[in-house]
Amino acid sequence: MRLIRRKIAVAVVLAYVFFSLYAAYSVFFSKKVISRVHRVVKKSSADNTKAGEEEWNPWEEDERADSITVLQKRREAYRSYQERIAKSRPKRYKVQILGKAAIGLYLWEHILEGPLNPTDKTGQWREGEIQSGKINFSFYTGPAVVQGHVPLDTDSVVLVLNGREQQKISYSIQWLQHVQALVQAHTISKVAVVLLGSEQCTNDWISPYLKRQGGFVDLLFLVYDSPWVNDKDIFQWPLGVATYRQFPVVMPNTQMVSSARPYICNFLGTVYKNSSRETLMGILKQNGLEKQCLTNAREKWLPQETADTSRQYQMALAQSDLTLCPVGVNTECYRIYEACAYGSVPVVEDVLTPGACADGRSSPLRLLKDAGAPFIFLKDWKELPAILEKERVMSQAEKTERRMRLLEWYTGFRQQMKDKFTEVLEEAFFKLS
To answer: Cα(404)–Cα(361) distance, rounded to whole angstroms?
Structure first.
């Protein structure tokens, strides 16, 4: 009996030791496996959730992936919208104009109506920007605009040059050679030239630079009735006002249109020996018209105006119904355009001058005639007394209507030249038609 009790006690001790060892192993060496579901805690079980501890969501990663997908789709839709807007927006092209002749100011300020900074006309460097059609024009002028120091932000350039006399031609050739080097270096690809040509239309010096002769100049806008004009790559350009004498941009007003003017006509200018100008002054004197017409003749041409002479000249235009425009070396003269600016009807001597200018059916002044210029044309100054007699009996209402028609025509003519200049460049430079 005692032996049986001893065996039972040994068995109990062994069982106790075994379970103690198993418990120790489970606590210190076994890995804890916790079911994911058991970690879900409901918001209502506040007593089982520690304060400030974030709630764990088993679908959180899927929701985050969905939100990223939606965001990407929105970004793609916005990018597509921007691309559609960009395609519908008109494309702009850049053209840079380098004004190295005074007629560049007529192109920029009177035709394109662009601004210039600084406004001081004596500025060494002046520049401006304007938009016309699909082209953004930039303009640079002044003595400080020299070769190699003009910033080029486009490969399309218009060069404004003077070819009136040999010294001017030599200077123009230097600029052409500079631009030619830029073309050869692939810095510039499109070139146009606006040229104040010879008054006798002898411009052979520029011919080798034209693309039609193997050169690099794509387009030429040429002043005077040159036989070269073909409206394909060579176009006629207006002489305009004497910007080199600081003739301003004139803004018409009510007084300019409707007020009575004290003089029938005016002529302020140089009278050359044995010229039609001398004939004109003789006719005015013989017919006693000097008091009715404001005249101031000088024997020598002056390249520059003083402030007083400039003011007197502009006052004469503003105070006269007619401006007498005898021929000089060429029939086309600054006086014609300056008279238009003040609403004073040009009385033009419609005679072709010596030289190589075209003598076609509409020459001289082919460009102005084709545009329907409302001028008074005469072949001989002996016709003047009869013209002035008609002026004496014309009513103020008739004069006002005629003056308004002239000012409207001149505004329309400049707009027409602006549109033509822009359209020609668009088609030739950028193939827009």
So the answer is: 29
Q: What is the pTM of this model?
A: 0.80
CB 246 within 8 A of CB 305: yes
2 has pLDDT over 80: no
Write out the two tokens for 9.
Answer: 């006690």
The candidate with the shortest Cα–Cα distance to 151, out of 127, 181, 186, 135, is: 127
Q: Note the residue count of the chain.
A: 433
pLDDT in tens, 330-339: 999 999 999 9
Q: How many angstroms separate the CA atoms of 215 and 195, rounded?
A: 16
DSSP codes of every residue in 399-417 = HHHHHHHHHHHHHHHHHHH
pLDDT digits (tens, 9 = 90+) for 260-300: 999 999 999 889 888 999 999 999 999 888 889 999 987 66
CB 140 within 8 A of CB 99: yes
* Two tokens, residue 252: 């018409």
Kindly calculate the radius of gyration of the chain based on its CA atoms and give it in whole angstroms. 43
- Token reading at 293: 């017409």
Residue with the two structure tokens 């390249």: 303
Determine the Cα–Cα distance for residues 77 and 73; give it in Å rounded to an integer: 6
